[in-house]
């Protein structure tokens, strides 16, 4: 009997999917509809923002930009109507369209702020395109070659360009790497500025929308496990090559790309922001100065170890020392044509006339960067040795470095920091602890304080300082960083009776200058209030008062009053925008206690100095014993009376750039200063016994 096997039927295959009908294919998908609605909403919001007065462009430009954005956001709705031939053409054009993202990103990065974009040297344009191509490759491969990765790269370029536009408008300088470590600070103070749209910003927004519309028509790249792995490897390889290039080549030397510390905006504009920004990244790490060794620093400090102030040992009681760094306090009456206007802080000059010392201090900040002025004053360091675009507060560990705080603590003083704002701004909540302050009164201590333009008044901080003195009869060091005069100067809030007007040449006026001058007028009155209260105390008190920098609009103010740009007139003219007033004042009890005008060379009135020397001068004027480091600074100030980010003032009264040939003694002093400063800031493992040693110790 033969058994037959049943025949196995062929396995059933799933039915092939039916091609979508033409009607279904042409129907917009949900993401496309959502994108169109969001784009239309953004266009309407743009019009409303401009209608509210936040646009410096004509209404035609606003309307054109809004219409372009709305049209580009709606364009993907027609993607389904694209014929088969059009879809094949889009697939073939995809590599070329993706490659165009690099020049498009360059345009979005530069156009919002760079007036000289189309006049840029082709060499620098090509160099920036190469840098952006590497960065784009990392983003593109890391994003699995998706359309979203291209859009993300373009969005990042646009965001950087827009950020540069506003930072330059507010501070006069473009973004530098250290700014990225202070984003919380920028967000905290950003409410004081007006973010107005101009024609170039609108143009860039419309261009970005057009790029996104083009991307929407490009086909997707299917993601497979093999492709995902290959793209990840490519991203890592390109990132590794980029890192190797950054570490192996000095951008300034290899690509002729110097960044002038006093003309950062001009350098960015001429050589491209991508290349210049990376050059600034390379400058973040401090290099050892020529001739540095710990032993060399010890030798320099040892030369000042035996000097003793004559009156240092005979002090009946230690004076309290108050240092007020007044936000953006400057005497703009020094500019031509403003001498007899309300730009002059009259009370300051009256107080300076009876001070122990008063004059001009040259700072390393303009329009912002308050923390660098603090750093120079508290540590005796000069930003001239660290370079532009560096914020030591956010980059370096200052624990163990000698400072005014550590000095006063070693004498048994109570040390207090005061700043009526967010404690995290410029990392003060950490840095003040590293420097050694006993406590820090931040914005929370001033929640109920009187305000001017929404900011705690100077007088509120002075009352807090007076309360500290009333609560403790012992000697104190109080460092008060005010905020009342902070920019911008177009927010209003000045009462009519407190407002002043500063006329410019040819009958011109500036509401920005007027609001600033009104703030300074109130700050001037509050300074007089503080001095009056301190003078009435029976305890000895020494006050040091100075501004941290001039307002950001000093660039155009200089040009309006001098008739030329400062950069075209030499270093003396450049330093005009980096000049702030300072004074060292003592009440009657402190004068009887031994506080006196310095007996060193030079005039005590109308003196020219810089913030790095000011702390040592305060200690000397108060009649307190000085450390080897402070005596080194005082000696250095005789041959180099002032030094800042831009250059140095020699004893012959001539400003010189760093590296410029000049007074031999001044050059030797600068070399020694660089060694001592580096040792103080960065040699934490083998601290010399000379650090912190007071006279007679």
From TrEMBL:
Q: List, alphabetically, the Pfam families matched.
A: Sulfatase
Give every Sulfatase N-terminal domain span. 319-603
Q: Which domain of life is it from?
A: Bacteria
InterPro entries, per the entry: Alkaline_phosphatase_core_sf (IPR017850), OpgB/LTA_synthase_biosynth (IPR050448), Sulfatase_N (IPR000917)
List the residue ranges of the region (Disordered): 1-28
| A Gene Ontology cellular-component term | plasma membrane
Q: Where in the cell is it found?
A: Cell membrane
Segments of skewed composition (Low complexity): 1-11
The protein's topology relative to the membrane is: Multi-pass membrane protein
- What are the UniProt keywords, alphabetically? Cell membrane, Membrane, Transmembrane, Transmembrane helix
The membrane spanning regions, by residue number, are: 33-52, 58-78, 90-108, 123-143, 150-170, 201-221, 228-247
Q: What is its main location?
A: membrane
Q: In which pathway does it act?
A: Cell wall biogenesis; lipoteichoic acid biosynthesis
This protein's name: LTA synthase family protein
Which source organism does the UniProt entry give?
Gordonibacter massiliensis (ex Traore et al. 2017)
Q: Where is the organism placed in the taxonomic lineage, from the top?
A: Bacteria, Bacillati, Actinomycetota, Coriobacteriia, Eggerthellales
